[in-house]
Amino acid sequence: MNEKQAWAINGFIGLLLILALLAGGLYFLVMVQSPILGFLCIFLSVVAASGIFIVQPNQATVLIFFGHYLGSVRRSGLWLGVPFAVRRKVSLKVRNFNSKRLKVNDVDGNPIEIAAVVVFKVIDSAKAMFDVDNYEQFVEIQSETALRYVASRYPYDNFDNEGHSLRGNTDEIASELAQELQSRLAVAGVEVIEARLTHLAYATEIANAMLQRQQASAIVSARARIVEGAVGMVQMAIEELQREGFELDEERKAAMINNLMVAIVSERSAQPVINSGSIY
């Protein structure tokens, strides 16, 4: 069911109409001595008064008349609508939903803890009121379901640097989570403004093992970068010596390369050694 505009007139005009009917009823009762017209006017004023309602800012009022959806009023203010209609209020404000910390398995089967915040608002009051039982509870359940679905499609971390991961591609994961949520919440007339991960960690039973793996991977990457830089520095040193006129045979080059690589790559500071003899 889609939202439509309900019939309603300005409430202050409605109040003037009610007061006019009430004054007319008193006039017919007291001055004209006509009880029928007097009570009729008073009855009509009471009926009209039942249609007075107030719409707050960023709020929609859904009007239901004996099980029939009449429409919704979004403009704030005092209004006069169909008398005896049931009025249900739906908030149109932007709201946040913080999911619980869920324990799920990523695509590699590793247990992880994950949570997200969802920013949403109602854009169709009729769908929010009639197409789902409780749209706030619906948002909560579908948000957790979508979060589980997205988390199970990606690894927590990608050690091979191929494809997306939950930790390394937060923007892409947030975008996919928002799209997944929007497809699920459209039936409730809800628009998803943003969805972001607020918590991401390995489960406690594997946290230590995964931390060691991350540390080992970081050390290997750092060592590879250091070796790559050291090789370049050694090449530059040998080329510079040759340009200055120093001729080095293969054995001296090997000894020099060995000394420079040890000095650059070693974790500890190199200790100078004075060679008083010859390498031959």
Any descriptors?
four-stranded antiparallel beta sheet; 280 residues; 47% helix; alpha+beta; 3 domains; three-stranded antiparallel beta sheet; 10 strands; Tetrahydropterin Synthase, Chain A
Query: Using only CA atoms, what is the Rg?
Result: 38 Å
Order of helices and strands: EHHEEEEEEEEHHHEHH
Shape: rod-shaped
Structural class: alpha+beta
| Main sheet makeup | 4 strands, antiparallel
- Topology, number of strands: 10
Number of domains: 3
Number of helices: 7
Oligomeric state of the chains present here: single chain
Helix content: 40-55%
CATH domain fold name of the largest domain: Tetrahydropterin Synthase, Chain A
Describe the 3D structure.
About 45% of the residues lie in helices and about 20% in strands. By secondary structure, the chain is α+β, with helices and mostly antiparallel strands. The protein folds into three domains: about 10-90, no CATH class; about 95-200, 2-Layer Sandwich (Tetrahydropterin Synthase, Chain A); about 205-265. The longest helix has about 40 residues, at about 205-245. The N and C termini lie far apart (about 95 Å).
